[in-house]
User: What shape does this take?
Amino acid sequence: MPSSATPAHGDLLIVDDDPSDLSMSPAQESTPWRILIVDDDVDVHVVTKFALSNAQFQGRRLSFLHAYSGKEALATLCATPDIALVLLDVIMETDDAGLRVARQIRADLHNELVRIVLRTGQPGQALEHSIICDYDINDFWCKADLTTRKLFTTVIASLRAYAGLQAAAADRAAMSAELDKARQVQALLGQQALVLKLDAKGRIIEASERLCQLAGARPEALIGHALHALHAGAFPEPLVLDITQGLARDGAWSGDIQTRAADGSAVHLRCALLALSEPGGAPYEYVAVATLHDPTPGP
Assistant: This one.
């Protein structure tokens, strides 16, 4: 629900926290944890906010937003993407309004981070078991059982889980960005350099565009085959021994390799080979990068 005043019930009036007022300067306290209280009973909002008014987690206070229906809850979640926790009533404008909101948060808003705690004034063990199994929620409480102490514990546990998921999501985003950059570099490299990837058994799993042009073969004709698909004859024994010893000792090898292009012409490659392996494990992949080299010395 948009900020400013929410509807008054009797003499009670709850004023929502305005997200625009919560941007703090570095000299002020950190941005608070945003908690959305969703319930059609204004007294529940008052009691919940009062019970948690002095709570803090990781040096950050709690800030409360309020919604009185499922529709208002979804609007608030759309407008405020950094809500950490939703305290969600099950029965509001309909008997399953809260359940619909819980499902829409995950399925429609695609919000996997926010923690959802369902609260109900009509407990039922069978119903509770079904909801926990069928809905992607994080806790379920009967309002009568949710004392101030239990509410505090539930909220802090939910915020801790949210903080962990948020940090993990940031790490994944950073890794994805780095991976995209690496793929761009690899694509650029593949247009100019000869890049070859082999599995643990020496079968080709990837060949760059430039390498395929030199071999006169399409990538699908090389994938899954051994090196004879690129080099018809056997490599000299001294070269094989040098490569094997280098990979076993250092996990890498560099040197010159003689082969032939698709037209039969001699090709001299300056090659670097790297074995990829888990710590303490056997290599699971080999990557070779080569460039065409003219061995004839200049004048």
